Amino acid sequence: MADLPSYLTTGPRVGLRPFRLADGPEFTARVRESRELHRPWLSPPDTEAEYEPYARRLIEEEARAGFLVCDREDGGIAGFININNIVWGAFRCGALGYGAFAHAAGRGLFGEALGLLVGYAFEELDLHRLEANVQPGNTASIALVRGRGFRLEGFSPDFLFIDGAWRDHERWAITREMVTAP
């Protein structure tokens, strides 16, 4: 797809690239196809009217960075990984939000994508720590972060308001040293 920006980082099967406003139709169509997979874990924007302000925040705000996970075979959007609540200075930390789309789920693309994102966040963005807050019943997400080397750091009751309710979350994290340690 010649009109797409180049990938920021690539693996054998996926590439990460920034969000664009023009991605709205494909992104929201994939979200609508993935409703059953996503609920009650997350609620990404499923209309173009909701997508535009969502994407603008990821594109324009210093405390956020959004990445589309693309299948390198066809360039299509397989999901997203966002770094939210980035704090600079001595903390240099961000909180992950992510979701695979139904057509790409279960194919191992997100393990590769999360590994790319962690490397990019530590090397290119110069972050020191990434956190992932995961609902205890979301076994696929727990397996994803555990498989990429995140450690369980705690439990937070009523942590985030998702899908109409305050949800408990496990707190998982990884630091630069955990990735570069021999």
Q: Which properties best describe this structure?
A:
RimJ/RimL family protein N-acetyltransferase, Aminopeptidase, Acyl_CoA_acyltransferase, 182 residues, alpha+beta, eight-stranded mixed sheet, 34% strand, 6 helices
Summarize the structure.
Helix content is 31%, strand content 34%.
What would your notes on this structure say?
The structure is a single chain. With 182 residues, the chain is α+β, with helices and mostly antiparallel strands. It has one domain (9-180): 3-Layer(aba) Sandwich (Aminopeptidase). It has helices at residues 24-33, 35-38, 48-60, 109-123, 139-147, 176-180, and strands spanning 9-10, 14-18, 65-71, 77-87, 93-100, 129-134, 151-162, 165-175. Strands 1-2-3-4-5-6-8-7 form an eight-stranded mixed β-sheet, with helices on both faces. Strand 7 and strand 8 form a beta hairpin. The termini are far apart. The model has no long low-confidence stretch (mean pLDDT 93).
